[in-house]
Design brief:
The chain is α/β, with parallel strands linked by helices and about 425 residues long. It contains 14 helices and 20 strands. Helix 4 packs antiparallel against helix 9.
């Protein structure tokens, strides 16, 4: 529980002292991954789940060793559904005809309402298959579903990508966006995160929402937190990527400006590639004035900036001069940024980027968490004076995400430039 003197929620930089962060441990959803469904669920392979749990717990402990308050999503969700209003809101928005079919709404709802809070949270994140669901609850409709699709049919989908908590919501200075995710496999995730912010006693009534509503269809306006970096001095970097669209970026920029929450949104125009799905897969901060990047992508990024305007819509877009790195440095008032590239020859750089080698998350200025497997790049960072705390990435990285992806900062300090 929070206390009255706790710092207000808000993320004011990419590198300032990290004080509170939300993660989601591997669990039931990851036991659902199979060679035949992992592509649809956005994983490149099945996980060794026990090892993934161990490595994720080690990551949590290494953050706690640095004084970070780490809160875990299964626990937060269990505490949220223990509140009648929270449970009702989630079930009202998840157990609907569009998701489960008319013939099973009442049966599934009744079954879920009978679960204890922990089991319900695990089921909401891990999915409900026809095999899990008691036949006495489902009747003829359940038999039809089983006969048509077999036991691998899900009445509620597994959500293995909740491991990457960065995407579903992102704290930008003093508020948060509730994001509209690109792939259908992730469409249910924002319901659960939003419920935590709305009903959990640590968050209820304390969360300022800049943009987004997971109960509405945002159409082409998709937005994911891996593309978003509030870098300080009123600036926000947003990647226009495979998963974050110009339609959403313009709306978020207008909302931030209308609330005087930001002064400039710098758009990184990226190629729409799986390998570069988010800005943070090719570019992250390691210190106030140091970035790690994958040059094969970042060197081709063009930068555009939204600024407040009196024109209709409240925003004005201009193309920035110079390279993307130069634009970011200038926005922070720096003559230049120290740049560490994912090193080696073209083959090694590509392997490193695929293994989330550019996906750092800072504990504080100059102190980062990185996957252990990217030895060459981690050595380059250390030579630049960065303290690299390694985490095991063999299993956790199979969905193409590193420490930055696995963390949703909720409280992070500003830094001076």
């Amino acid at each position: 529980m929070t206390n009255a003197n706790e710092v207000k929620f808000g993320v004011h930089s990419e590198v300032g002292k990290l004080r509170k962060v939300m993660v989601c441990a591997p669990g039931l959803a990851h036991t659902r991954l199979t060679p035949s469904n992992c592509d649809d669920l956005l994983f490149d392979d099945v996980l060794w789940v026990d090892n993934a749990k161990r490595d994720h717990f080690d990551f949590i402990n290494k953050m706690r060793d640095r004084g970070v308050d780490v809160v875990e999503m299964h626990n937060l969700l269990a505490e949220t559904v223990a509140i009648p209003e929270g449970k009702k809101w989630i079930l009202d928005n998840q157990v609907i005809p569009d998701q489960v079919g008319l013939g099973l709404v009442d049966e599934i709802r009744s079954y879920l309402e009978g679960l204890d809070s922990r089991k319900l949270a695990e089921t909401l994140l891990g999915g409900l298959s026809t095999e899990d669901f008691p036949e006495k609850h489902g009747g003829e409709m359940l038999k039809l579903v089983k006969d048509a699709a077999g036991v691998t049919e899900y009445l509620l989908p597994p959500l293995p990508n909740t491991l990457y908590t960065r995407d579903t919501s992102c704290w930008i200075y003093g508020g948060v966006t509730l994001n509209s995710l690109y792939w259908p496999a992730r469409h249910e995730e924002p319901i659960l995160t939003t419920a935590i912010y709305k009903f959990h006693p640590d968050f209820a009534g304390k969360v300022k929402v800049w943009w987004g509503d997971p109960t509405k269809d945002h159409g082409m306006a998709t937005f994911e937190g891996g593309d978003v970096m509030p870098i300080g001095k009123g600036n926000v970097l947003i990647g226009m990527s495979e998963r974050t669209s110009r339609q959403a970026i313009s709306q978020v920029a207008a909302a931030l400006f209308a609330n005087a929450a930001a002064e400039r949104v710098i758009v990184a125009a990226m190629p729409k590639l799986r390998a570069a799905m988010h800005l943070d897969t090719v570019f992250t901060f390691a210190d106030r004035d140091c970035v790690l990047l994958y040059p094969d992508i970042v060197n081709s990024i063009e930068a555009f900036s939204y600024r407040p305007s009196s024109k209709p819509g409240g925003v004005e877009l201009t193309k920035d001069k110079g390279t993307f790195v130069e634009v970011v440095a200038g926005a922070l008032g720096l003559k230049k940024l120290r740049v560490v590239e994912t090193g080696g020859n073209a083959y090694q750089r590509e392997r490193t980027q695929w293994d989330s080698g550019a996906n750092l998350v800072c504990a504080s200025p100059g102190v980062v968490y990185a996957y252990d497997r990217n030895v060459y790049t981690n050595t380059l960072l250390r030579k630049e004076g960065i303290e690299v705390i390694t985490i095991v990435g063999a299993e956790l990285g199979r969905g193409r995400g590193g420490g930055h992806c696995m963390t949703c900062p909720i409280i992070r300090d500003a830094v001076d430039y």
